[in-house]
C-alpha cells in the first residue's frame, strides 16, 4: 500500500512538472521525455524505499 501512495504522490509531481514545462512553451516531445525519465526515477526510488528488507 505504501508503494501505491508513493507512486500517487510522484504522479502529482510529474503532472506539476509537465504542466510547468507546457506553460514554459516547451515542445510536447520534451515534456514526454522528462515525464518518462521522472517516472523511471519514481519507480526506482519507490521500490527501494518501500520493499521489505531481506532476512539475514
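Q: What amino acid sequence fits the structure above?
A:
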Amino acid at each position: 500500500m505504501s508503494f501505491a501512495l508513493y507512486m500517487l504522490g510522484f504522479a502529482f509531481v510529474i503532472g506539476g512538472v509537465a504542466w510547468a514545462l507546457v506553460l514554459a512553451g516547451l515542445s510536447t516531445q520534451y515534456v514526454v521525455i522528462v515525464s518518462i525519465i521522472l517516472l523511471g526515477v519514481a519507480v526506482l526510488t519507490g521500490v527501494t524505499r518501500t520493499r521489505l528488507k531481506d532476512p539475514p
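Q: And what stands out in the fold?
A: The longest helix spans residues 28-50.
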